[in-house]
Amino acid sequence: MRTWPLDVCSELPLDTPLEIGGFIVECRAVHHSVNAPAVGFRISAADRCLLYVPDVAALIDPERTLRDVDLYIGDGSTLTRALLRSRGRVLTGHAALATQLEWCKTAGISRAVFTHCGSQLVRMSPARADATVSALGRLHDVDARLAYDNLVLRVRNVTR
């Protein structure tokens, strides 16, 4: 990252939009782990926005974090049963893929891609895993798929 055109290389502030290479990047706090904190990244350009939350137990401010998102890239650690623990008032672990699809449906996000796949998906054949995620997506009215190396996502016309 030292060669990137950034003034801040080691730490990006939360909730403060920064322009990086023509994109607006905003770090959003999420619940994930006490020992390994995580953030989500809202990345915008022109009238498009994606949210990347590779490790998430819960969103801290879901309405604000999901507002105007066109593509959700989320945590595929578990399909339908969350891997959550509570440490005091803080949730740790991973939200189920199905829960994240519900977040998308509620926020009006029509496309989701999942990465950071857990054993439930990894033990399946790639075709079966993708079909399973697609079927879960249809149950939530979201076009859902798994990420894979060299995946290319086409921009769709979005009317807000």
Structural description of this entry:
The chain has 160 residues and is α/β, with parallel strands linked by helices. It has a single domain (18-146), classed as Metallo-beta-lactamase, Chain A. Helices cover 21% and strands 32% of the residues. It is built from 4 helices and 10 strands, in the order βββββαβββαβααβ. It has helices at 62-66, 97-107, 119-122, 126-139; strands at residues 18-20, 23-31, 38-45, 48-52, 58-59, 71-75, 83-87, 90-94, 111-115, 143-146. Strands 1, 2, 3, 4, 5, 6, 9 and 10 form an 8-stranded mixed beta sheet that branches. A two-stranded antiparallel sheet has the order 7-8. A hairpin with a 2-residue loop joins β3 (38-45) and β4. The longest helix is centred in the C-terminal third of the chain and has 14 residues, at 126-139. The protein is globular and about 45 Å long. It starts with 17 loop residues before the first strand and ends in a 14-residue tail after the last strand. The mean pLDDT is 86.
Per DSSP, the total helix count is 4
How many separate domains make up the residues? Answer: 1
Mean pLDDT: 86
Class per helix and strand makeup: alpha/beta
**What portion of residues is helical?**
10-25%
- How many E strands? 10
Tell me the Rg in angstroms: 16 Å
What's the name of the CATH homologous superfamily?
Ribonuclease Z/Hydroxyacylglutathione hydrolase-like
SSE order, one letter for each helix or strand: EEEEEHEEEHEHHE
Largest sheet entry: 8 strands, mixed
> Under CATH, the topology is which?
Metallo-beta-lactamase, Chain A
Q: Strand share of the residues?
A: 25-35%
What CATH architecture would you give? 4-Layer Sandwich
Unreliable spans are: none
Distance between the termini: 35 Å
Tell me, briefly, the overall form: globular
CATH class: Alpha Beta
